[in-house]
Structures are given as structure tokens and as C-alpha cells.
Amino acid sequence: MPWPPALVHEFDLVDPGTPKESDYYGPYNSLLHYLFPISQDFLIFPQPKGPVFPDTAEDATIFVVTAEQHPVFFLEVKPWRDINDLRARGVTDREMRERFQRLIGELRLPKLYGLSAMGPRYAVYEYTAATSAIEPKAIPPHPRLVNDIAPVSRWDNDLLTDVGEIKIRSVVRTVKEMRQEARQSKPII
Predict the structure, then answer these.
(1) Which pLDDT does position 57 carry in this prediction?
(2) Which residues have C-beta within 8 Å of that of residue 96, sequence separation ≥ 6?
(3) E strand or H helix at 141, and its extent?
(4) What spatial distance separates the first Cα and last Cα of the chain, rounded to whole Å?
(5) Which helix (H) or strand (E) holds 183?
(6) Nearest Cα to 76, choosing from 64, 88, 89, 58?
(7) How many other C-beta atoms lie within 10 A of the C-beta of residue 105?
(8) 69 neighbors 44 (Cβ within 8 angstroms)
(9) Which of 171, 175, 159 is nearest to 66 (CA)?
(10) DSSP SS3 for 27
(11) Confidence band (pLDDT; 50, 70, 90) for 187?
(12) Rounded to an integer, what distance in angstroms lies between the CA atom of residue 101 and that of residue 85?
């Protein structure tokens, strides 16, 4: 099922060369409301902009999708041009892992998915509660050499392609199925 034309148009209006991640907030906010409608008891909370790590000036904005005040999914948005910046990808990877640490205390599902978006390209991160593991696995920095701790291939999904749409819809379907199973076993969620 293709995206609604109005949603695709919102992404098409964003200048791919923009240095401002905020240019993508509208399209991604619309996407999240489309995938996680309020009619299904989901709420989307944009988190305030601010430094993620005390030792950097990097800002990160995320959108947290909740059900009954518990996180079920989150999205971090960065500008498209960051995809070719080794350092920016490394910082983004660190931010994603930090977000999991901040959200898992409220988690009521067996998994939490996070989407790291750089323009229309995205990477899927997955935390599994049973093992406390995050996929993809972290690549430690080399002590003396510059290494790529967040390879560009991680962001190999393009939201505006059929394959990218199918993948994100699959993740959302999994989230909704986990939520439904949790609701049937416990009335909390």
C-alpha cells in the first residue's frame, strides 16, 4: 500500500541539502501520526531539543510514540547531509543507544524499536528486553585509528521507496502486535 500522496509531497518539499533537521519534523510528524493514529490510542510526544551528551554541543530531537504512557517506538531525525559525515553518524549512533537507556525503564513490551532518520533514509534499531541487547551491535572506537563506528550502510532504507516503506510498515506492525499481546495478557497496555 503506497504512502498517501500528501505525505510523499511533504517529504518532496524538503530541500535535500538543508542543514536543518527541523525541516524534516513536519513530514516525520505526519508519518508517525499516519502509522500510529490517535484512534488506536497512540500519542506522539516530540521531545525538547537539547544536548544529549554533556561533553558535546550536539542537539538531538526525538519523537516518542506511547500507548498508555509507555514508550512503544521512537524516532530521531537528522538532516540528510549527515549521512556522509563519519562523525555525525557516530554521534547519532551514540544518541540512539542513549535514548534506549532513557526509555527502557518505562517499557512494557518485549522489544523497543527506534528509527534513526537522516533525511528520508533510516536505520532501524531494536532493543530486546529479555537480553538487554541493542541491534545493530555497537562498534567500539579504535584507540589509535579512526574507524567507522556507524557505517553508512546502516541507513540503507529509503522511506520513499517501496522496499523502505514495506520495512517500516513491518516494524510498525510488529509493535502493534506486541502491544495487542501485552493488552491481552495484562490490562496495563
Answers:
(1) 44
(2) 76, 114, 116, 125
(3) none
(4) 28
(5) helix 162-185
(6) 64
(7) 7
(8) no
(9) 175
(10) helix
(11) low
(12) 25
Instruction: Count up the domains in the chain and report the number.
Output: 1
Grid cell 516494524 is found at: 171
Global pTM exceeds 0.70: yes
**Residue 13: CATH number of its domain:** 3.90.1570
Closest to 93 in 3D by CA, of 81, 103, 83: 83
How long is the chain? 189
Domain assignment of residue 52, given as a range: 5-185
**Cβ-count burial 80-92 (b if 16+ within 10 Å, e if not):** bebbeeeebbbbb
Residue 10 near residue 57 (C-beta atoms within 8 A):
no
Q: Please name which of 159, 122, 157, 187 lies closest in space to residue 7, comparing C-alpha atoms.
A: 159
> Can you tell me the distance from the alpha carbon of 34 to that of 32, in angstroms, rounded to the nearest whole number?
5
Closest alpha carbon to 26 in 13, 37, 36? 13
Q: Collect all residues with Cβ–Cβ distance below 8 Å to 165 and sequence separation of at least 6.
A: 2, 3, 159
Each residue of 92-127: pLDDT tens digit? 999 999 999 999 999 999 999 999 999 999 999 999
Q: Is 18 exposed, middle or buried (0-12, 13-18, 19+ CB in 10 A)?
A: middle
